[in-house]
Design goal:
Distance between the termini: 48 Å
Oligomer: single chain
CATH superfamily: Rieske [2Fe-2S] iron-sulphur domain
Largest sheet: 4 strands, antiparallel
Radius of gyration: 17 Å
Structural class: alpha+beta
Number of helices: 2
CATH architecture: 3-layer Sandwich
């Protein structure tokens, strides 16, 4: 064991915890509370979310996407790099105009930096013609 008392496993574990913290940085307690308070409520109509694109619901700080016909995804609309609001998705890409970060519309995963953490996901489902927070 090294002089500092931390072995290889402990160092790897600490690095993993730090990485998880960075991944969750874009999801605040307020985001979680907002999602819970919206549970079961219609936040948009399916007709308003184009295939390959999406929409930003500014007051809820949510970005909705339809990466494939009939598949709807929702993510935090706050970029994980510096907290700017993302733009309306186009061509299955969610972009942040502030510093150029890009995120995949099907997963919220960061695909182009400077952001390295993906967007926090919200569970949604379709009920009738509405998109509902699950």
């Amino acid at each position: 064991m090294p002089e500092n008392g931390l072995g290889r496993r402990e160092m790897l574990g600490a690095a993993g915890v730090a990485a998880c913290g960075l991944a969750l940085a874009g999801c605040s307690v307020e985001d979680t509370k907002a999602q819970q308070s919206l549970k079961g409520k219609v936040i948009a109509k399916t007709a308003d979310v184009p295939v390959g694109g999406g929409m930003v619901i500014e007051d809820l700080k949510i970005v909705l996407t339809q990466p494939a016909q009939g598949v709807y995804k929702a993510f935090s609309a706050i970029c994980t790099h510096k907290g700017c609001a993302v733009s309306t998705p186009k061509e299955n890409v969610i972009r942040c105009a502030c510093h150029g970060s890009e995120f995949a519309a099907d997963s919220g995963k960061a695909t182009k930096g400077p952001a390295i953490a993906g967007l926090a996901a919200f569970q949604v489902k379709v009920e009738g013609d509405g998109i509902v927070v699950a």
